[in-house]
Amino acid sequence: MVETAPSTQLVRRLNASAMLKAMRGAGVLTGTDLMAATGLSRATVISICDELVRLGWLQELENQRGAGDYVKGRPARRFVFDDRAASVLGIDIGATKITAIVADMAGTPLSQVTMPFRHAYSVPADERADVLDRIAAKALDEAGVSVDSVLAVSVGVAAPVSRAGEVLTAQEFWKSFDVRGIISERHGWHVLLENDANLAALAERWRGTAQGVDNLVVMLASDRLGSGILESGRLLHGQLGGFGELGYLDNLDGVGDTSGIAHYAVLWAREALEAHPRSRLHKLCAGDPEALTAEMVFAAAADGDASAVGVLDRVAHRMARVIGSLSTLVNPELVVLAGAVAESARALIPAINKELPDFTHTPPRLEASTLGDGIVSIGAIRHALDYVEENALDVFPASLSRSASS
């Protein structure tokens, strides 16, 4: 069969992506090293290295005699990936704040900035766009990188997102807020959109407790419940981006909705406050139920307050039902509790583990995330880097864009 031009170009892109993955963070490599790492032929490796050098991804070091590609006295050609050749931006748009991280091409964070999002979803679209502008500018300034160094921006949103990056929801908030269009129009950046829980799953497998785990559920579990699911290392979206959405919990006995750990910890603690006015909880909130926070409930339970312990037992029982139902459906090896409540939720794991066998025949291992509030932005960085790697021959550092396109 005669190979067509499009298929040749696709193979070349795949090979370039494999080369970048092998070189990122690996230090100085020779052609022989890259052949071993990728399984590609010498001719292919050298050809792609030459192109990646031209595009600014690789630096070729001065020739030296030595091991590796030694051929009839000619020294090996040595290459190194340029981590600072460009940058990517990861943004998490939450209900009350926006977090942005700038990272280099090795995925090393260069800055992280968080700004409040006034009045949550009631903010007009133009004002939301201005907040995005300010946080992006501040993050880039603190990272010490230029606007034209950004090759891709990934944005996490609390809504189903299709494989094509389209928000599929009837929520008025997202109907009126064209995130991709606004950022792309104002800055000319390539903008990717993804569900926040899906990005949390990418982050956890990349930098968190789930490294090396192929069958994984990461659950954002603070005020609301959302899940990102990997099966055999592949992020699942479903037909319209709704894979991992937990709306079915509305109809699950003992659960009833998608509210999360922090929500119910506070709600049930307020009920307990009325029944136990002299409790540790009462002291922590100075007798004001409206001042109660999830952190206060966990702190009171850690101090042995019986009413707070009872509240967390109820929360653990509810989460065992949630995790049990999800585990029965997708059978993960590991479930990670993530989001703002993750560190506190670690205290719930023994009680959840005890009850899980009552709700699933295949109980997974449970962990709490260590990535903190930045988990969605970290996943957005991974998402943007994946895009850049897959399109390495089409996107490249702005400093070389003229010569590369000529």
Mean pLDDT across all amino acids: 87
Low-confidence stretches: 402-406
Quick one: CATH superfamily of the largest domain?
ATPase, nucleotide binding domain
Number of domains: 3
Structural class, judged by helices and strands?
alpha/beta
Characterise the protein shown here.
The chain is an alpha/beta fold and 406 residues long. It folds into 3 domains: 5-81, Orthogonal Bundle (Arc Repressor Mutant, subunit A); 87-203 and 375-405, ATPase, nucleotide binding domain (Nucleotidyltransferase, domain 5), CATH 3.30.420.40; 210-370, 2-Layer Sandwich (Nucleotidyltransferase, domain 5). The chain is built from 15 helices and 13 strands. The strands form 3 sheets. Strands 6-5-4-7-8 form a 5-stranded mixed beta sheet. Strands 11-10-9-12-13 form a 5-stranded mixed beta sheet. It has a 3-stranded antiparallel beta sheet with strand order 1-3-2. Strand 10 (226-231) and strand 11 (234-235) form a beta hairpin. Helix 2 crosses helix 3 (42-55) and helix 8 (261-275) packs across helix 10. The two termini are 32 Å apart. InterPro entries: ATPase_NBD, ROK, WH-like_DNA-bd_sf, WH_DNA-bd_sf.
